[in-house]
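Technical annex, item 7. During the second reporting period the consortium partners agreed on a shared format for inverse folding records so that results from different sites could be compared directly. Each record opens with the tokenized structure and is followed by the designed sequence. A conforming record, contributed by the partner at site C, is shown below for reference.
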């Protein structure tokens, strides 16, 4: 079959690969046969000059036929980007995940180091350690968290631990993007626990979300963009926050949509628990 030229999220050109699409679908939980069938259907629909976002939309639409929970897992990276534009919902998501792992979390305004005050995204404690967490959020595809961010995180940590009462034992950098090679090299050398998309293997951000069963509400297919923003503005960040119809109606979701929303949230969390 003739090669189809596509545009990647970083602007680079590549050729469509049905194998890559099928592998992405299988990582989301689709069976091999279903994944190959969907990738073949996508190949028939796309054309030269289409983007990876176009491919994702086609695959997502087709995958929904096999169940919403599968589609949610496949769309997770995009769903996290939709938490923006501010980084606050992402910080809340990270805090919730760490709580599931046994930490007590807090979101202080400013903590003073030896030289200056620092806005800390999340503090996580479990009696044995006290962690400074930098939750670095980006809502642009193709972005990589680079070494400057890792340097910045370590410098802040050094200033904070220079004050004994702060009592931090380690620093973590958690992001929804991939890391540059230099960022990872520096993080390993400087003792930063780096967590990003696909890193470390089997302990990346997507793995932490799967393990905690805390899927962002932005992954729910039934919600419009405005409805997602309405929920986020009312601190409803993950699907498990959706517990009753009355709460949704009280913040402005129509009753009929609230019923669909609750059912969908239960489907997603039960299927992935």
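Designed sequence (site C submission):
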């Amino acid at each position: 079959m003739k090669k189809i030229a596509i545009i990647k999220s970083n602007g680079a050109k590549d050729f469509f690969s049905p194998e890559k699409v099928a592998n992405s679908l299988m990582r989301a939980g689709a069976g091999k046969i279903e994944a190959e069938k969907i990738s073949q259907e996508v190949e028939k629909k796309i054309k030269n000059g289409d983007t990876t976002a176009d491919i994702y939309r086609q695959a997502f639409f087709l995958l929904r036929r096999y169940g919403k929970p599968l589609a949610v897992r496949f769309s997770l990276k995009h769903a996290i980007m939709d938490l923006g534009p501010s980084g606050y919902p992402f910080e809340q998501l990270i805090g919730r995940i760490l709580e599931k792992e046994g930490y007590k979390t807090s979101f202080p305004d400013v903590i003073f180091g030896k030289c200056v005050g620092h806005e800390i995204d999340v503090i996580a404690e479990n009696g044995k350690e006290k962690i400074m967490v930098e939750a670095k959020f980006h809502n642009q595809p193709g972005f990589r968290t680079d070494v400057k961010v890792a340097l910045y995180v370590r410098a802040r940590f050094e200033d904070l631990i220079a004050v004994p009462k702060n009592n931090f034992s380690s620093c973590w950098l958690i992001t929804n993007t991939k890391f540059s090679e230099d960022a990872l090299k520096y993080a390993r050398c400087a003792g930063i626990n780096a967590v990003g998309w696909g890193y470390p293997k089997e302990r990346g951000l997507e793995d932490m979300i799967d393990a905690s069963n805390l899927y962002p509400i932005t992954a729910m297919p039934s919600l419009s963009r405005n409805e997602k923003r309405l929920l986020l503005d009312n601190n409803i960040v993950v699907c498990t926050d959706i517990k009753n119809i009355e709460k949704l109606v009280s913040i402005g979701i129509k009753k009929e949509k609230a019923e669909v929303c609750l059912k969908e949230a239960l489907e997603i969390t039960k299927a992935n628990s």
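The longest strand covers residues 130-136. The chain has twelve helices and eleven strands. All partners now use this format for quarterly exchanges.
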